[in-house]
Design brief:
alpha/beta, TIM Barrel, Lyase, Ornithine Decarboxylase, Chain A, domain 1, nine-stranded parallel beta sheet, seven-stranded mixed beta sheet, 31% helix, binds pyridoxal-5'-phosphate
């Protein structure tokens, strides 16, 4: 009710990105990664949009996200919990036919017990520790794991054997990633010898798909690219360098919008907002926009960021408040209360990108997106 701002997701942008990703994947299956509230896009609207466009498989980090997804009223896609499933969550997942990451013996035994008790097969992905040193079975213990699976084949459905790269977006990590790929090859050979048939062998995330296409195999877990972002700028430069493409083939789905609440005149020499960080050098007109750090608008953008009003950039004047910012509309003729404001996205031929929010961190797009508060309404547009 009465939201001060709202987020839109562009259908056509999603279709463009999906086509680009699917072209890379060929016949391999796409697992659409929607953890972190679909990278801030909103898991429910995003999954709905993806399913309307033929996506039937989603990856989440933990069971609570799988629960939200399956109760969103969007149908029953395949869902893979790639990370955390504690005991009760595992019981729920097995009963629902949700696929789970099995990364240690305790998870494996619990999955088997639940499957025996409920009479439903546990749909499992065995995670291999190849060099990330986070979770997963060491290659040297895999034989025991496979033996155990073979004993319990009546209760286990071996969906996947997988690993995750520790930084496929940067050439700096190339040796490490190649070592991971080599370890995964060893694991796959062991699978072959064991006689177990996994439906999928999967390694690649977005950066894997772009920089190590040989790892796509018959499935990839793609997150950031489907939302229209490269894993990092290096990955984009590598792609554009190789393809001689001047234009970015990906399009951002997300826009963040609000409207002008009030416009006020400020005389030269007066201060704008809290404190003295912003003194008007000349007579100015300032518009107040009802979005602040309580809504996820970073305080670091104080006296630095900009928004779009009437197709022009309006610079932030003063400190980002809890619920509002002031922006300079001196040069924007006719700016008035009620004018649409774009905080992220396009207006006319101007654009405010997610990365313009700060240039500090390499992983910035991921972080900025997932920090967008859940309670901002999400709306799908054409
Ligand atoms: C987040 C994640 C992905 C997707 O990563 P992107 O870089 O967004 O494509 C894939 N696999 C796992 C295990 C993940 O946690």
């Amino acid at each position: 009710m009465f939201p001060p701002s709202y987020i839109t997701l562009s259908k056509s942008a999603f279709r463009t990105n999906l086509a680009f990703v699917q072209e890379r994947l060929g016949t391999a299956r796409l697992c659409s990664v929607v953890k972190g509230n679909a990278y801030g896009h909103g898991i429910e609207p995003f999954v709905q949009l993806a399913m309307e466009n033929g996506v039937d498989y989603f990856g989440v980090y933990s069971a609570d996200e799988a629960y939200v997804l399956l109760n969103a009223g969007v149908g029953k896609p395949d869902v893979f919990i790639m990370g955390l499933v504690d005991d009760e969550a595992l019981d729920w997942a097995v009963e629902q036919g949700v696929e789970c990451c099995i990364h240690n013996v305790s998870r494996l035994e619990r999955a088997i017990r639940t499957a025996e008790r409920t009479g439903r097969k546990a749909r499992v992905h065995i995670e291999v520790e190849t060099g990330m040193h986070r979770t997963g079975f060491e290659v040297k213990v895999l034989k025991n794991v496979f033996d155990r699976l073979l004993e319990k084949m009546d209760h286990i459905e071996p969906i996947g054997l997988f690993t995750h790269f520790a930084g496929a977006e940067s050439l700096v990590n190339d040796d490490r990633v190649r070592e991971q790929i080599a370890h995964f090859d060893v694991a796959r050979n062991q699978v072959e010898r064991s006689g177990i048939l996994f439906e999928y062998h999967h390694q690649a995330c977005s950066a894997g798909v772009m920089n190590y296409p040989g790892t796509i195999g018959n499935m990839a877990r793609v997150g950031i690219m489907q939302y229209g972002f490269w894993s990092n700028s290096e990955t984009w430069f590598r792609y554009s360098g190789m393809h001689g493409d001047a234009e970015d083939p990906l399009r951002r789905l997300i826009s963040w919008n609000s409207q002008v609440m009030a416009v006020t005149d400020v005389k030269a020499g007066q201060f704008i907002g809290y404190g003295t960080s912003c003194e008007a050098q000349t007579d100015m007109r300032v518009a107040v926009v009802p979005v602040g750090y309580a809504h996820g608008f970073d305080r670091g953008l104080s006296n630095f960021g900009a928004v779009l009003i009437r197709g022009q950039r309006a610079r932030i004047t003063g400190i980002v408040n809890m619920n509002a910012i002031s922006v300079d509309v001196t040069g924007i003729a006719g700016a008035a209360a009620g004018d649409p404001v774009v905080l992220i996205g396009e207006q006319g031929d101007q654009r405010i990108s997610v990365s313009s929010f700060s240039e500090m961190s390499e992983q910035l797009n991921y972080e900025m997106l997932t920090r967008l508060p859940r309670d901002i309404p999400r709306v799908i547009t054409d």
